Amino acid sequence: MTHRIHGGLLPAAAMALTVASGLSSCSKPAEQNAAQANATEENAGAQEATEPAAPSNDQSTQNAKALLKKMSDYLAAQKAFSLSYDSVFEVVSDQHQKFQIATSGTVDMSRPDKIRATRKSGFTDTETVFDGKTLTIYGKGKNAYVQAEVPGTVDNLIDQLRDRFHRQLPGADLLGSNVYDTLMTDVTDVKDLGSGVVGGQECDHLAFRAKDTDWQIWIAQGANPYPCRYVITSKGVDQAPQFTMTIRDWKAGGAADFGFKPPAGATKLDAKDLETLKETSDLPENYKIGAAK
Q1: How far apart are CA 229 and CA 245, in angstroms?
Q2: What is the pTM (predicted TM-score) of this model?
Q3: What is the arithmetic mean of pLDDT over 37-42?
Q4: pLDDT tens-digit profile of 173-214?
Q5: Adjacent-strand bridge partners of 247
Q6: Taking CA 192 as the corner, what is the angle to CA 235 and CA 18, rounded to the nearest 5 degrees?
Q7: What are the boundaries of the region Disordered (predicted)?
Q8: Residue among 17, 18, 21, 37 at smallest CA distance from 29
Q9: What average pLDDT is seen over the chain?
């Protein structure tokens, strides 16, 4: 069965992406578009009426920014850390049906230039390894891997993965050297929503609005303010699909092996053949990207 997707929320750097090239057309008559616009305005009014009350706009904004900056500074100060995660990202079919793709994995990182990340779902079992010089992307199902020279920091690796290889690290927005500036890009509204609990951990719950996305983050309270949950909502895509990442087993410090030793019988592919290693993709093969709304 093939699901044709006309809009999605792909977790490239944990960022919502609107997929806009067409295998299918989703255009509608002008009258229908106008009716939808009116309905959207009415819904927006209803949502505003139920918006959580904040102590005051200025105080709520200042509190949220301070808590996010505290998290960013804490993460930047960790020379090494590890975590496990569960993530769900949603895609929307051309018949306006949402599908959720669930993934789990691990991240081990040593600043400034080493990382090992795994990602496993129903269609992928992938390991990404970077030792400061060489990037390796290994697909366990095909027992095949691609290697490329990408010298530099993890910050540079995040950019290179996105721009050169059309791949991403899990929760990349939370892995860079300046998480605060990365997350606050184009933010227009900020709220401190009080406390929440994620996996038994009491957290500060913050909400942010930007031009194309709304996003929320839950930050562990106490001496170790690590991110517990990160949710991005894509406002410009039909059905407002979300990307959600929940972090567990957070551990500061520790040491990991960032070298890659090919398993027995593994095939080395040329970097230009990465697309043939389909299990490293974000979408299963039976999903096809179609037109945006």
Answers
A1: 6
A2: 0.81
A3: 46
A4: 999 999 999 999 999 999 999 999 999 999 999 999 999 999
A5: 85
A6: 15
A7: 31-61
A8: 37
A9: 83
DSSP for 8-58, written as a single string: E---BTTB-------SS-----HHHHHHHHHHHHHHHHHHHHTPPP-S-HH
| Rg, the chain, Cα only | 20
What gap in Å lies between CA 200 and CA 209, rounded to an integer? 27
83: nearest Cα among 229, 282, 261: 229
pLDDT at 25 over 60: no
Other C-beta atoms closer than 10 Å to the C-beta of 96 total: 12
Backbone angles phi, psi at 77, to 5 degrees: -80, -15
3-state per-residue secondary structure call for 75-109: HHHCCEEEEEEEEEEEEEECCCCEEEEEEEEEEEE
- The topology under which CATH files domain 8-20+56-282 is outer membrane lipoprotein receptor (LolB), chain A (2.50.20)
Q: What is the dihedral of CA 37, 40, 44, 45, to 10 degrees?
A: 70
Outline where 98-153 has alpha helix (H): none
Annotate 192-227 with b (16+ C-beta within 10 A) or e (fewer).
bbeebebeebebbbbbbebeebbbbbbbbeeeebbb
Domain locations in the chain as residue ranges: 8-20+56-282
Q: Distance (Å, rounded) from C-alpha 198 to C-alpha 6?
A: 32
Q: Which of 252, 173, 185 is nearest to 217 (CA)?
A: 173
Q: Specify the pairing of strand 267-269 against strand 144-149.
A: parallel
Is 206:68 a contact under the CB 8 Å cutoff? yes
* 118 burial type by CB count under 10 A (0-12 exposed, 13-18 middle, 19+ buried): buried
